[in-house]
Structures are given as C-alpha cells and as structure tokens.
Amino acid sequence: MGKLLRQGDHVVGIDIGGTKIMAAVLNHRFEIMGRCRKKTRSKKEGQSTEERIFDVVAGALDEAGNPEIKGIGVGSPGPLDPATGVIIDTPNLNWKDFPLGEALGRRFGVPVAVDNDVNVGTYGEWCFGDVSDCADVLGVFPGTGIGGGVIVGGKLLHGFSGAAGEVGHMTIEVDGPYCGCGKRGCLEALASRIAIAKEVAALAARGDAPYIAENFGTDIANIRSGALAKAIEAGDAMVEDVVRRAAYYVGIAVANLINVLSPEAVVLGGGLVEAMESLFIEEATRAITDHAMPFLRKNVRLVPAKLGDDAVVLGAARMIAEKLAEQ
Amino acid sequence: MGKLLRQGDHVVGIDIGGTKIMAAVLNHRFEIMGRCRKKTRSKKEGQSTEERIFDVVAGALDEAGNPEIKGIGVGSPGPLDPATGVIIDTPNLNWKDFPLGEALGRRFGVPVAVDNDVNVGTYGEWCFGDVSDCADVLGVFPGTGIGGGVIVGGKLLHGFSGAAGEVGHMTIEVDGPYCGCGKRGCLEALASRIAIAKEVAALAARGDAPYIAENFGTDIANIRSGALAKAIEAGDAMVEDVVRRAAYYVGIAVANLINVLSPEAVVLGGGLVEAMESLFIEEATRAITDHAMPFLRKNVRLVPAKLGDDAVVLGAARMIAEKLAEQ
Fold it and tell me: Which band of pLDDT confidence, cut at 50, 70 and 90, is reported for residue A305?
C-alpha cells in the first residue's frame, strides 16, 4: 500500500455531505496528518459551497503544516460523473452540472479524482478495513438515507451510468411507503433512520415508546440513531421491534445481492449500524439465512464498518493515490 | 472474434438441461457445423447422465463429419465450480460433487470449460446477440424457472462462490408464495412459467380462462408458454392479466439490479419471453420506469434475447475458445 505514494508525498481526501464537509491531509502511509470539518452551510453571506470546500481544505492543510500535496480525492453526493468530476445534480448543495473536479484542480494546482461519497466510503472500508483480502465486497450504509457500494474483482463498480450501487433504492415492498426519491417501497423508505424515526415518533405519540416520549419527544428530527439506541437500552420494547424490523429489511436487500453478486464479504456501516451494531448484525444475519441461497451465502463474512466518519476521506485519498500511480 | 480460433479449428458447445441435452460442433467462425439433441433421461437401462452426454457429443461430431476438436465448453445447471468443472449438487441429474469437466476431458482428450447454464447463455447473448458492444449487461431468462447472468466490464460475473447471478431467487414479495428453493416470495415463485400456470389453472377451474380450460385443461404441466400466448391471443383477458403481472415482477427485479449494477443493456429471454415478447418488454419497461432511478435507467437498452435454444452452446463454444486462446 505504501508503494502508491513515495515517502514525503501527501494527498488530500474530502468528504462532502449535506450537513458537513470534512477534509484530511494524509501522508504516504495514509496516516491523517491534519483535518478540518465545517458545516456545509456557511454563515458567511454569499459563500458558495465550493468556496466553503476550499476553506475546509485550507484548514486541513494548515493543521498538517502546509505540506506540498500531490492530488485531491473527493467523495460527493451524486449523481456525478467520475470520469470528468462533474456533479450532475445535487439540489441540497445547489449544484447542477458543476465541474467540481476542475474547480478544485484550478484552486490547488493538482490532479483531482471525484466519486460518489458512498462508493468512496465502501472503497475506504475495502482498502483499510477488515475486508481488504476479499475481491468481491458489498457495502450497505443505513443512516439518514441508505447508500451502498460494490467492489467486483477488486474494483469499485461504476456501471454504465457511473452511478452504480444505489442499494437504498431497490424496491423491497412493492406497494410500500413513499421514498424521498418519489418511488414507493424502496429499502430507504423502509429501513433508514428517517423511516424508523417516523414509526417511533408515532409510537411515542401513542404512549408506546415512553423513553423516547420523555427524552426526545415526537419530532422525528430529534429521533436520531443515538436516541434509538438509548431507548432500546432503557427498555422501549416497541422501539426495539421497529429497529429490528428495519435491520431485517436491510438484510433482505443484502440477501438479494448475495444471490446476484455473490460477494465474499458484506460491510454494514452508517449511523444506525454504528449506534446499534450487534442488533443490526443479528437481524441482517437472520434475513440472509432466510433469503439468500445456501450455496451463495456459505462462508460470506458480514462485518461492521470500522472506519466510521473517516471512511470517505480515507477512500478518497486512496483513490487519488491510485490515479496518480497509474499516470 | 475469428481470431480466437484458427481456420480449420473446431470446438464443441454443450447445453445440459433437466429435460434435454444439446451439443453443437462449431467452426472457427462459430458457425454450427453439426448438432445433436437428446432427452436427458436415457431409455437405455443403466446409462448414466455422463454417458448420455458423450453420446450426444458423438452425434454432433458425426453430423459435422468428425473433425478434430480443440476443446469443449459446457453450460450445466449449478451450483458448480467453474474453476475445476465440478458439479456440486444437481439432484435431478443425480450429480453430487461430480467432476464433469474431467470426465469429458478424459473421454475426448481435449481441454474443457464448465460454467452455469444461464451464465453461459447470457455470455452467448452478449458475444453473439445484439448487445456485444455493451461492457455491462444483465440477462434475465423467465421460463419454467428464472435464471440470470451478469456481465461486468466485459466479463461474466462469477463472484466468490462462482455461482453469482441467481436473479430468480431475489426476494420480491417478503411474505410471497413458496418457491422451489424453499424460500418465499422469490421472483421465480412470482413470475416463472410454473408460477403463472398455477394461477391460470385456477382461473380455468373457475371458468375465468375459457380458452385454457377448453384446450389445455387445469393441469399446470400442460399450461406452457405457448398455451399462455394462444390463450391471450384468443381473448382470455384474465390470463393476460396474470402474465402481465408476472412480467411486471420481472421488471421490478430488473429495476432493482439497474439501481445496483447500472448495466448498459438488459437482455430478456427464456420460454415466456420467446412466446410473448412484446408483452414482456412492455411490462418490464413499465416496471423499470416505476422502480429504477431515472439517472440509472436513462439510455439503458432492454432487448429480447435473439439466440433462442442456441444461446448456451454458442456461449459455451466461445468460453472454451477464449480459454484456449489464453493458454
């Protein structure tokens, strides 16, 4: 791995999210030498998202002692074109056909690689997590939404559109609940943090989730992964039921993809899994046993993600390092 | 394509099915020079399936004028190990851990390549059909069962187990009807010829499918793809409803895989599609529009398979030709 970069080389990894932007400066061993994190929405009037990103990168470089950098890797919400670094449409960042890769390259004078944030996170977990010995890996990340990424034969799967891996928008219940994408019955509409919070808020309103009602109320914005974990620990049995059901749905989606992709390992990450790891692994395992073909599920490793919030910056750094090594 | 084999070279492709075995001898341009087809179950007492296969190959060689052959490619029901040519478990052929590749190699004295029949058929459609210019292709084949195959970056996807592509056993309705695999709600339990015939037999029994009742009765063994096509043509409206619903389910599975794999083309084949092509393409297109993400489904080509019964022998011949060229 050290061979990708030469001693003294540094690269930057950037994780662009709807609520926060993080950048990290990494040395040739992919150790984080400096980092900076800011809310995506700036308080400075008129500051564009790209200027905000430049600020965050500058902050990380400052913390690392301003080393010369060789390149920048970026994980960004999609859809985007990894070949050109153009963000095609991300309404909550106000980007439409925005050449993010070009903008960063011009500002910092180095090559830039841009890819979908969840794909980059999957790639990070694959390169630096517990599954780097597996050539075929599926990553599913249930949090506020549900993202996914696929490694086939040691390579991140992009597909024809460049945007493969939308595990969260597989239809799991044909006439199921409405999804943010406009469809119905998507995994994300059944098992994301928002989908769970919606059910739990109703439980709380009816008096069936006393710990949630007392400590977090009935506003789904406040019923976050940590709140759910605490409520389960405090004995809110129906909250546990709702979360287990969601985790089982995640497992059905994983089982479907085990049947089709036959991965060697499945990485489960995201806010929900970080907050309730054993519950998610348990229910997903149960669903995989119920819904995946015995021959295909045999010896498949189901592992929790281990990089947490650093998955995207690490994956992005590795991605640009590989691009540089190819050139 | 002609470069894989030299002028004068011949290879054999074999398609092993539960009801019939077909072998074809192909020249260096992959033109079929001789073929032979027999029922899988022999009338000769005590003849094993492998002896039956040897007979079929000998028959095809005879028809081609007994040229020297360079290798044999085989598509067989799985699960099997493509690396070793061992059939792991195929109850209806009486094979358990059977070294089919080795047996054929010993009998004919040439290299052998063995792979899953549906994967080989997908590969044939990819190499010789209408989608050979697409690097990422999904094949789904609804017939008596439902098989699938995936081409990623110009290569057949095998995955960790070697048996990737079990599209028919994706769960589409969580508590849906029982499937032959022992699970519930698989695509195959909702949309295969057997699943359709089961519903149509009940319609016929109740007087709701008069053409079927009069011409084919209520035995699902007789309600085959051609019978369904004729009944729809004759105006059995509820039969058409049932078939359209099944085709829509196939489209949901395709849509889910468009979201995850982002193929450039989807090939629909199998007995049901061959008998009712426009209906299947129409309903699958509707389901893809309803269930695939707009950015991922954009410009995806949905095409009917064109090789029919020859897909597996052609794919198998190409597979062994490539293996020979690599050596």
Answer: very high
Lookup: tokens for A267: 């990485």
Q: From the candidates A115, A140, A160, which should be mutated to test the interface with B, based on the most B CB atoms within 10 A? A: A160
Q: How many other CB atoms sit within 10 Å of the CB of residue B16?
A: 27
For residue A186, the chain B residue with the least C-alpha distance is B291
Question: By CA distance, what is A296's nearest residue in B?
Answer: B161
Selecting from B169, B170, B263 the residue whose C-beta is nearest the C-beta of A159 gives B263
Nearest to A276 by CA among A314, A245, A322, A315: A245
Rounded CA separation A279/A256 (Å): 20
Least confident of A83-97, A295-309, B28-42: A83-97
Residues of chain B with CATH 3.30.420.40: 2-122+310-326, 134-305
Q: Do A157 and B155 touch (CB under 8 A)?
A: no
CB neighbourhood size of A37 (10 A) = 16
SS3 B278: helix
Residues of chain A with CATH 3.30.420.40: 2-122+310-326, 133-305
CATH number of A133-305: 3.30.420.40
DSSP states of B165-216 as a string?
--GGGSBSSTT--B-TTS-BSBHHHHHSHHHHHHHHHHHHHHTS-HHHHHHT
User: ipTM for the complex?
Assistant: 0.94
Shortest CA gap B159–chain A (Å): 5
pLDDT of residue B79: 84
Q: Which fold has domain B134-305?
A: Nucleotidyltransferase; domain 5 (3.30.420)
Best of B157, B170, B264 to disrupt the A interface (most A CBs within 10 Å) is B170
Question: Residue B2 pLDDT > 80, yes or no?
Answer: no
DSSP state of A171: B
State the pLDDT at residue A2: 47
- From the list A152, A153, A161, which residue is nearest B298 (CB)? A161
Single-letter code of the amino acid located at B63:
E
Contact A159 B298 (CB under 8 A): no
pLDDT digits (tens, 9 = 90+) for A109-121: 999 999 999 999 9
User: Across the interface, do B160 and A290 touch by the CB < 8 Å criterion?
Assistant: no
The β-bridge partners of B171 are B186
Number of other CB atoms surrounding residue A219 within 10 Å: 10
| A61-83 residue pLDDT tens | 999 999 999 999 999 987 899 99
pLDDT, tens digit, for every residue of A231-256? 999 999 999 999 999 999 999 999 99
* Alpha carbons A107 and A159: distance in angstroms, whole number: 30
Q: Rounded mean pLDDT of A12-26?
A: 95
Computed over every residue of chain A, the mean pLDDT equals 95
Taking CA–CA distances from B119, the nearest residue in chain A reads A260
Q: Which residues of A touch B179 (CB under 8 A)?
A: none
Contact A247, A192 (CB under 8 A): no
Select the residue of A150, A167, A295 nearest B163 (Cβ to Cβ): A295
Across chain B, mean pLDDT equals 95
CATH homologous superfamily for the domain A2-122+310-326: ATPase, nucleotide binding domain (3.30.420.40)
Please tell me the distance from the alpha carbon of residue A165 to that of residue A173, in angstroms, as a whole number.
19
Q: Is residue A177 scored above 70 in pLDDT?
A: yes
